[in-house]
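Lay summary

Proteins are chains of building blocks that fold into shapes. Our project writes down both the chain and a compact code for its shape. Here are two examples, one after the other.
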Amino acid sequence: EMELYLYTLPIVLTGLLQGGYFVYTSAILNAVMLIGIFVCVMKNKKVYLAFNMNLLSIFIVCLMYFLTALWGIDSGMSLMGGVKFLPLLLWFLLIAGKKDRKERLIETLPVLGACMTLFSFVMMQFSIFEKSVSVAGRLAGFFQYPNTYALFMLICLVIAVDKLNWDKIDWLWCAYAGIAVFGIIMSGSRTVLLLMLVLGAWYCVKRKLPGKVLLMAAGGCAVLVVLLWITGVGKEVLIRVFSTNGSTFWGRLLYMKDAAGMILTHPFGLGYYGYHYLQTSCQTGVYSVVSVHNELLQLMLDVGILPAILFYGMLVKSCISKNVSGRNRLLLLIVILHSLFDYDFQFLVIGMVVILLLEDENVKEISISWFTRICSLFAAIGVMAVSYGTGLSDYYYMKNMPQKALKTYQGNTEARIELLKKADTVKKMKRISDKIIEDNSKVAVAYSARAQVYFAEGDMEGYIKNKLIAIQLAPYQYEEYEDYLDTLAYAEGEYLKGKDTKSAQECVKRANTIPGLLNDVKEKTSSLGWKINDTPKVLLSHEKLELIKEMEKKINE
């Protein structure tokens, strides 16, 4: 039983720590699992390794997250990505060859899901805790993201239903199933709700469920929906579920369309967060996301086409394997389908559950010598040291302490960007923006800050050059165009005071190009970009157009 607790601890920790979404949670998991592996090796003096496609796929994906630091958009963030996804490989090594333990862990998931749902729902009723377990009135569990939480609860639902004996109903498993349905409804995830309804229809046809069971399930769901509506507890969620607004759907398609173009030009991957930084210059609509909401495309963007195909090939292979139980094949199919419309594997808890479901073949027992154990110990210490630095930096960044984040790990570009936004002197802005651009040439805000520095120093040419780069990197940031125009108008006035007509004319000339720049944005925007709620602003306001006319009038006087 103690050994079972050892294997349960990582997946419980992952669930508690925001589902394993952040780098600092991965740093904790790396330490826990490395210690777990070391204890097992010291105790048994041997390990079990599964020499199969699963090991190869997971190893290559995790390795590539580290290697993309050599060619990715941001090497510092790529290293953080390597630390983030390393727990998946460690988890695979920790539970390799332990079929009985895997099954026990799978059967534990509905219990963990039920506890999380009930506890989160209670916390949701108190304003002080509400934001920790919900998003816009939607239940999110400890994951802080309703859609992935809903997927996890659907997994729990399938496991619970599979345990039910329809001749003699086990009310405890019925309770787990009921809580899972409650959690899915309260999450407001339309994709998971649709999958749940399809699964229900499939069970009816395939399992030929007794009429009383179907009536109980349908009646229970109906009563639950009515109660949620009457009490007002889930009214917002139900309105969202039945809403006809298709912005989210069109948005998903827009992300995927833009991502496809990036993949073709970067077949070996952009590294962790690379897509986020490159996105602003390549997007054809107004949005800002870290993930493309499609894990197959996201893996291609992060680590390249071949590793992504290998990883999904691993999932499909287990999904169709006769050595995998029908329940596990169904669960894998659910995860594969949902992951094509959301960013499930960014939450390590989903990846860890998937590893439990994979085909377990060609497992070999390997004896570990003292020399190998000592070398492995030093390697583990090195991994834990890197994890500690990057993880602590990520934690400080999440707690809005960018200065501490950078002292811990200099490669945290997100923390440096946050520090740049807080810079209160020209000297600080120059130092921070120069460092960001040195490490990552795709950060628009750094060029915008550098432009301000040049303007403060009286270098109008430097200002214009960097401001145009910022606009080129983030063409949908309308505020940049207005700021550019206002600065040109101010500079024209200063030049005219100094009798520098030539420089003033250059300012007017540049101001007249702004409507054209915005028109280029309009031409660039795809049809999908006009179907989402956030449509681009591609025309200057009447006030700003009048400002350009005033600038022309001044120069002609």
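And here is the second example, written the same way.
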Amino acid sequence: MKERSVLEPRLLRLAKATLLIAILLTPSIWMLKVIPPLWKDVDAYNQVTQPGVRTILHYAPLYCFVARIPFYVGQAIESFRGTTPFPRGSFFIHPILSDSGVFVLLLSQHLALCAAAFHLICTSSRLFLARIVLATAWAINPLFYTFAQCVGTETLSMILMLLLSAAGLRMIRNSRKVPRKDWFLLGTLLWLCILTRHINAMLAILLPLAFFLLSTHRLVMIPVTCSRLHRRWRCLQVKRDLRNTALTLAVGVSCVVLAHATLRTLSYAVHIPYHSSVGFTFLWRLKFLATLPAETRNQFLDKVAKNTPSPEVRKLISVLRESPPEDQPWDVLAFMHKAQVALFTPETEAQEERFNLVLNHTARAFLYPPDEIFLRAVGTDFVKSQKMRIPDVVNHLFGSTTFYFSHPETMADCASLSTFREKSATDILAVFKKHSYFRHARRFGYTGFLIFWFANLSLLAVLAKIRKEDIAAVFSYATALTLVGLLMMLANCVLTELQPRFTLPMWELTIVSASVLFGRTVDCLSKTIADFRWWIC
């Protein structure tokens, strides 16, 4: 009887976990069967096929390497069928794209998304009903699943950010005594996030901000606390939270430094001179110059030229003055070639390194101090990002896949893949239009989601007030998640032109924040209902 009583709860837990996983996997199974693999234009192609400087310094190396492992497995599967020779170690330098390899990659991405979402949902709430609601809400949201169906660094970044968010939630809940393994896990996940996308370095402020908000809240509450003993206890909590703020900040800075050292080490190992790619990325931010009247643009560039003593930067700005035609699309790569020819003749590998340095100094001239015209362009893009809806981001991924059909020479190895073989851009876009799953949230923008977030926060505050429960930790962490997501969006607007896929961190961290608040709200509500029933009886 005792063995049976122990076995039943285990079977029940297994059944509950199986149901949650089944809900989370349902959209993945449907997508793998119905939706063709999506590609984040030529960037995704370069990430998974090109060796050298781009896959280490420009795109960040983690996804660029990890994605080649499923490609290798797919190629091995093809070799067992007798269609191709078994791949050798050189495959990781010059991978061969195949339908089997792409399918294995997407399958691994969907499974990793399911595992990360399952872990986060279980961490957000202990109640099975709340977990079911959260899993269903995640399953009907096409954002994460469409990225999982897409080749590109954002997918791995998205999965790692879910795991990092769950680790952070567990730490701030158990802030009194955080186990060493949790510190190690936090540092590892943050380091991997930065090695996936450079902008993820901003995640280093997530936990310090959360603990700082928590300590600030408790510090404000000290003067209004009646009990002397309680005030003393709050003072001790403030000291502990400030200590955790310093520790998490130290971990964050260490991870940024370690990621930077990793990039330098990899560059040295493959004999590539290390350089920052900020200047190269920033050129796309300068596309807004084409929207300015000629006189305004020239006055603005005159101010920027005064911000730098470098004659090379000033010469590049003079080339820039002539390049963007008014109200016409600006070809950034053509400008780069024109500027490099104007600055360095003849072009050599050493001059390429100097040109990257000039680009970085040019970005610094534009950014410090920032001019009103530049800030206005950044603000315009940031406002646009708040108006973007999830279907807009999903549609962008389908649209970026059609890049191949207008530039097949830049993605030559993709010609034999099922996504592009005997297909057209119209066929790809028709998939998005055909399935309402991708468009059911077309009236629900980010601003509307923020309203829902505030409503959830208010309800939780009311329930906590009734029950006299301390929700400061969850409140602080949820607020930090949302703020960091917005800051990452703002940083993207500062450094490059706005693209719908760049809103993913903002959406993801806010959705995670809402999930954390919802889980805590349901937990608190269930206790309130249980107390009410007990009082009635």
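What can we say about the second shape? The two ends are 33 Å apart (CA to CA).
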